[in-house]
Design brief:
heterodimer, A: 4-stranded antiparallel β-sheet, B: 384 residues, mainly alpha, 2 strands
Chain lengths: 296, 384
């Protein structure tokens, strides 16, 4: 569906993307995790051709690329990017915005009432956008993406300004989109939330994908303990920690259980329970933990 | 998609308060300008003929006696005598509408005599009193029109039919261009200010341009049509409707022809349409470069004023004549041709230039869009 090949871009001396390669297919939600200024938005802008890369190309459906405007329009018929709240038209109502996106991409606005119901926007959608709160505007932006209903959606900071209820509501809609075979890229700071619906989360650092976390495959299980650096140093001197253990962000020790025999695993669990029991968990690493690993 | 985009642009235009204000200004111009126009001292046909008759006293007085002794001199003198007589008869005929035909016949003869004097070199006549060939052709054109269409030769200049072309001539040139530029200046505004919403729409740039230009052109002409309507009704009820088949002089191909007022007004409107089209596409081109509506308007106005500025500085700016013709009122009336001493500055040339320049600007926009996909960008962000 979407193939990024050898994408590179630099602003003056700062390399934002460095020979980045990536492939995604329909029916996937791909989370993009990275701190601000590490190239998430640039990546989305390049996928949508709002920004030209210094090298590399974006390929849709194995044939379309941004060779000319005709192809760009063809690609944009299948792709939408998440609007920024500040760019909503103050003088237009939410319904006007939804009708614009629905009609521009689908030629009809029949789907708009259902979207309004689904996102519980009935009480404000007919008012002018200038009267909306941050959360209302964000929901409207998401509703516009739903109205466009394109195969590929690029959602940058989709959960910004949303309360817990609305985060849950939008997460549910994202899962529906996945079911409908959409390819959705989500850049969000709500990392735990990404674990709920993403099939993969990619971590960008220094212009490259430093890690790709796949939720659809078997993942390595760790014994995870919250410990202070002093305790970690002490533990290291007294015990021989497995070579591939992780000590993330100077607070989380992760010991991989794979490769250890059952008695060894039991011994480590007992040892940890004895000293740090109330902070011990067993399971694969989550997006938050990987994030801390790469960026803390 | 195009239709939906057009509908959206229409909605945006309807929400544009600045354009509504300009629209109200256009609507009010037509009735308000009449207050000033009706106070203007317009020379009637009677005044003109009286003045011409008065001049003959001086012409005869100044005619050299010794010339009358030559055959050629005597012929010129006889010519002038006949002219004087014809003018006086015309003054008499103007009192009675039944005598229109006689007025016309005498008028045509009068101008034949004037032309004959020109052929004879206007010897013995003081230069101040020579009727120029241009004036002769103008009068002949009008007389022929009266003869052919049997319309009143003494029109009231303050009736609606005569007021509308005069009002349109008044706004033509810089005032009209400013209105178009101000209306069109915000065409790309929401594409720039609401960028993340607008830039991904699956519509090509030229389709956007055509939609924006089309809808702004439509809005402008609705304002203009309603303004003309209000002006006509106001003047029509106040002083009368007049006749839209009355003649008016039109400069074309180095000479003057008389055409009906309807013909003239339609030409004015066609010119306005083409000028608006040219200015709107130019606005889009310049906006793409300046990214600022005020800078766009100012730079285009500067460009339009450039020929006059260069002319006043004594610099030859004949290559800028196409821009001068934006003042279509002076082109249709022949003033521009006279001012810039160029017989080619007529409405046909002007309209061709407007169409040609519009095509050039559109081709530039097309090439600019194409180049975005072929050239390596100096900056990364793609312009709108």
């Amino acid at each position: 569906m979407l193939k990024l090949t050898d994408l590179s871009i630099a602003y003056q001396d700062k390399i934002v993307l460095d020979h980045l390669n990536f492939t995604a297919k329909k029916g996937e939600i791909i989370g993009v995790a990275a701190p601000n200024g590490t190239g998430k938005t640039t990546l989305f802008n390049i996928i949508a051709n709002y920004t030209k890369p210094d090298s590399g190309k974006v390929l849709f459906d194995g044939k379309h690329t941004y060779r000319n405007e005709k192809e760009e329009v063809l690609i944009h018929k299948q792709l939408t990017t998440f609007p920024e709240q500040k760019d909503l038209f103050d003088e237009l109502s939410g319904t006007d915005h939804l009708k614009l996106y629905a009609s521009m991409w689908n030629g009809s606005s029949k789907s708009v009432p259902a979207i309004i119901d689904k996102l519980q926007m009935n009480h404000y959608v007919k008012k002018k956008a200038k009267t909306y709160s941050l959360g209302m505007r964000q929901r409207l932006c998401f509703a516009m993406m739903m109205a466009a209903d394109t195969t590929v959606m690029l959602m940058d900071e989709v959960m910004n300004g949303l309360d817990v209820t609305n985060v849950a509501l939008i997460s549910e809609c994202l899962l529906d989109m996945k079911q409908a075979g959409k390819l959705v890229f989500v850049a969000s700071h709500l990392l735990e939330n990404l674990d709920l619906y993403a099939d993969r989360v990619i971590f960008l650092k220094e212009g490259k994908i430093v890690h790709e976390q796949r939720f659809t495959e078997d993942r390595e299980v760790y014994l995870k303990v919250e410990i202070r650096p002093v305790d970690y140093d002490e533990l290291k001197t007294k015990n021989e920690l497995p070579a591939d253990h992780l000590y993330i962000a100077e607070h989380l020790l992760c010991i991989p259980l794979e490769g250890l025999t059952l008695p060894e695993q039991t011994r480590w669990v007992e040892r940890m329970l004895g000293r740090f029991g109330h902070h011990l968990t067993v399971g694969p690493l989550g997006t938050v933990e990987y994030y801390e690993k790469y960026y803390a | 998609m195009r239709w939906n985009y057009l509908l959206f642009e229409t909605k945006m235009v309807l929400h544009n308060r600045k354009n509504w204000l300009l629209g109200i200004a256009i609507l009010l111009f037509f009735p308000i300008y009449y207050l000033q126009y009706s106070q203007t001292d317009i020379k009637t046909l009677q005044d003109q003929k009286n003045e011409e008759a008065e001049q003959f006293h001086t012409i005869f007085k100044a005619f050299p006696e010794e010339m009358r002794e030559t055959k050629e001199g005597q012929e010129i003198y006889d010519n002038l005598t006949e002219q004087s007589s014809l003018i006086n008869m015309q003054r008499f005929y103007l009192w009675d509408e039944e005598e229109n035909d006689s007025y016309i016949t005498d008028g045509l003869r009068l101008n034949e005599l004037r032309l004959a004097l020109h052929e004879a070199g206007n010897k013995g006549i003081h230069p101040n009193y020579i009727v120029t060939k241009e004036e002769i052709h103008k009068e002949v054109a009008l007389l022929n029109y009266y003869q052919k269409h049997h319309v009143s030769i003494v029109p009231d200049p303050f009736v609606a039919s005569n007021y509308i072309p005069a009002a349109l001539d008044t706004i033509s040139g810089l005032p009209f261009c400013l209105i178009v530029l101000l209306i069109g200046s915000s065409m790309l505004l929401h594409d720039q200010q609401n960028r993340s919403l607008m830039r991904g729409l699956p519509v090509s740039f030229l389709q956007k341009v055509f939609s924006k230009v089309g809808i702004h052109l439509f809005q402008l002409f609705v304002f203009l049509a309603v303004g003309i309507g209000i002006g006509s009704v106001y003047v029509g009820l106040k002083t009368g409707w007049g006749s839209f088949t009355s003649p008016i002089l039109l400069y074309s191909g180095g000479t003057f022809t008389a055409v009906s007022i309807v013909h003239y007004v339609l030409l004015q409107l066609l010119s306005f349409l083409l000028i608006s089209l040219l200015l709107l596409v130019t606005t889009i081109l310049v906006s793409g470069l300046t990214k600022n509506m005020y800078a766009t308007v100012l730079s285009i106005v500067f460009l339009l004023l450039l020929p006059s500025l260069l002319l006043s500085a004594g610099i030859d700016a004949s290559w800028l004549h196409p821009l001068v013709m934006i003042d279509i009122g002076s082109v249709l009336s022949g003033e521009a041709a006279l001012k810039f001493t160029s017989t080619s500055m007529d409405y046909r040339r002007a309209l061709s230039w407007f169409v040609g320049l519009t095509l050039v600007v559109l081709a530039t926009l097309y090439m600019k869009t194409r180049l975005q996909y072929t050239s390596h960008p100096s900056g990364h962000d793609k312009p709108n």
